[in-house]
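STRUCTURE:
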């Protein structure tokens, strides 16, 4: 018998795990079809200035409108896309859609609107990563200064010299670089002054530590202080309530993103949020 390491130590492959692998095969087949049939959707979540309440950026988050299973989330299919290398086609489609949507808004009264896109480590490791990203931006006629790529600390762990060269080229081209889920990876802080980074995104788990009357916020305090010292922009992720917002504002956190401002939504639903909404927190 082949053994697999489960949560409780070793266990044997069971029949349910065989069914899982059958499911996996059919999901893989469906995903290939999805890319051919244009079933991916891009949702957008506002990134809001913590001072003015204005939407300054939109993060593109992929969804899959599965013909039978309904709307699927990245957690349901991204790991498989990465394993099967379908991720490169998937990412191209996401970027093309996002550049098209946000490009229209940029040209229609929001010249500084930023598009934030997530990149998978598999993509970044690809030898032609830099060239293909630049080519795609040129093909969609999307201004590189309006793009921010989000990478995680795992990407950086791999080969600092190589990643540094790649990011430098992108930064020289005008693209901004953000570290997503900051503080949850296994990398050292050493990379922060060796890479051309513009933004730290404070992971939502730390933002959730902010509760009135508790001192769970110390990591957020430390990250924001460090970002100020390094002159990096800060986006706090997963802001769900006005207690968190007020606290982040008091720390001098530049931007906030989370359900408090809006859940990720299709393009036509987020257009409204681009008109300068009054600051909700000061009203309450
Ligand atoms: P992420 O980039 O850290 O994105 C934030 C996730 O937190 C999103 O989940 C978002 O819907 C969710 N979120 C936003 N605000 C709140 C909040 O206030 N509370 C809570 N509890 N959650 C909030 P989503 O859309 O399921 O995406 C999960 C992850 O999948 C993303 O994490 C990102 O790493 C990855 N991902 C999403 N789209 C893409 C893509 O197009 N390409 C790649 N490579 N990865 C993607
Ligand atoms: Mg992200
Ligand atoms: Mg994140
Ligand atoms: Mg994440």
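SEQUENCE:
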């Amino acid at each position: 018998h082949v053994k697999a390491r489960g949560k409780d130590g070793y266990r044997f492959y069971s029949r349910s795990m065989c069914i899982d692998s059958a499911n996996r095969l059919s999901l893989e087949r469906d995903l290939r079809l999805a890319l051919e049939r244009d079933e991916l959707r891009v949702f957008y979540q506002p990134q809001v200035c913590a001072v003015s309440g204005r939407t300054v950026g939109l993060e593109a988050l992929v969804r899959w409108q599965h013909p039978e299973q309904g709307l699927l989330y990245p957690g349901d299919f991204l790991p498989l896309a990465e394993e099967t290398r379908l991720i490169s086609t998937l990412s191209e489609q996401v970027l093309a859609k996002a550049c098209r949507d946000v490009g229209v808004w940029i040209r229609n009264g929001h010249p500084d609107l930023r598009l934030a896109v997530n990149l998978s480590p598999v993509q970044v490791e690809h030898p032609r990563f830099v060239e293909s990203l630049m080519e795609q931006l040129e093909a969609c006629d999307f201004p590189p200064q309006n793009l921010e790529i989000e990478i995680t600390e795992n990407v950086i762990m791999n080969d600092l010299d190589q990643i540094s060269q790649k990011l430098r080229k992108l930064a020289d081209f005008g693209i901004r670089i953000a570290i997503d889920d900051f503080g949850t990876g296994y990398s050292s802080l050493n990379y922060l002054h060796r890479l051309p980074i513009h933004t730290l995104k404070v992971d939502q788990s730390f933002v959730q530590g902010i509760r009135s009357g508790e001192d769970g916020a110390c990591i957020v305090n430390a990250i924001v202080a460090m970002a100020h010292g390094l002159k990096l922009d800060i986006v706090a992720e997963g802001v769900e309530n006005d207690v968190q917002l007020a606290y982040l504002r008091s720390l001098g956190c530049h931007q906030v993103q989370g359900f408090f401002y809006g859940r990720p939504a299709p393009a036509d639903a987020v257009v409204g949020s681009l008109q300068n909404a009054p600051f909700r927190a000061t009203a309450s």
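REMARK: Residues 10 and 228 are 46 Å apart (CA to CA).
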